[in-house]
Amino acid sequence: MKTYYVESLGCAKNQVDSELLMASLQVHGKNAGSPDCAEIIIVQSCGFIESAKQESINAVLSFRKKFPEKKIVLSGCLARRYEKELRESLTEADLIFGSDDISALVKLCGGTLSETETPSAAARPLLSLPGSAYIKIAEGCDNRCSFCAIPLIRGGLKSRSIAEIKTEFTALVRRGIKEINLIAQDTASFGFDTEKKSLLADLLKTLLETEGAFWIRLLYLHPDHFPSDILDVMKHDRRVLPYFDIPFQHASKRILSLMGRVGSGERYLELIERIREELPDAVIRSTFLTGFPSESAADFDELCRFQRNARLDWAGVFTYSREDGTPAYDMEKTPSKRKAALRKTVLETSQVPVTKNNLEKWTGRHLETLVEEKIDGGLYLGRTYIHAPEVDGVVSLETDRELTPGGFVNAVITGRAGFDFRAKALP
Ligand code: SF4
Fold first, then answer.
1. 379, 382, 384, 390: CA torsion to nearest 10
2. pTM attached to this predicted model
3. Does domain 3-108 correspond to CATH entry 3.20.20.80?
4. Residue-wise pLDDT tens digits, 136-157
């Protein structure tokens, strides 16, 4: 079998795993193709919360239905978490493998695992839009938030070495990649397992030794051990974007402590204030969780007050998913799914005017823009540093010349349309 297709579900870390899997198949002479022409379809699944698990299983079932004759494979987090159970129950899949060992997959493709050739992370196929890529700087997590199944799936924190990350980074920059998003379950704890302290600022300084115009974006910074020394690095080199993705999850001290977190709404507001003092153009994104066991109306009011005071640029909201094996699983007085969904809607609705208002201040400003795709004669889509891939808005870019997807262009922001910018490319 020569051709395969990977359906990459879940988070950016899983996307990197899909890319590495593709690099391994490439080493074994397999080519990526569309689902229609592929002989093997691989569902790189997500096993984090109920809805994601269902989405992964539905993907296998719908591919099986559409392509009864093809080989269907389940890999990724859901396979890692329930390999044994799924082998018995998900008979629609020809193979379920929940590890980095792809020997069974290569065998299913009619090949044998090469002892000599190893795929290079730096040369791997990239599934992001042109000019952008993710680098996973660590695997696993030691924070053990009580609602989270990831440590059960990915294990404890394992930071990569700064030298290894630098090699991958430099190679991606040489490949013309302009935006490199550094990711992990918690980028703020990078180095805790190896040096018992955050090495994030050291990593950034090392990556900045690389010549060239590029962006470094940090995602998934845990608020309880925010590495303040990165602020100084950002002040001295604008290639590290003043974009902060900090999942606060909640603001009630009581709920945060039940989540296995040590923060509070007050402390988190101080952190936000500090960031904005040091970097006035800082952009802050966060996520909130509603419906956590014993969350009361008073706890939720506290979260709403925090949201009003924080004036975040972007915020996503999730409802609690009771996950077997997590400490919160046996906690009582869990609000109903309906109440959790109502609270989610309240937060989402209140966030819309805040985000729109924060976006207004950029009209008239000149911003470096990463061109991503041409949509119509003279119109392109892109992103500025204000927009992380896939989760924030975009820029619709007007121009009277050909632009190169994957390249930077300077643009003047001419207005806002919903969560998106309108802009004109500058000569
Ligand atoms: S920081 Fe908490 S929520 Fe995030 S992966 Fe680790 S345990 Fe899960």
1. 140
2. 0.96
3. no
4. 999 999 999 999 999 999 999 9
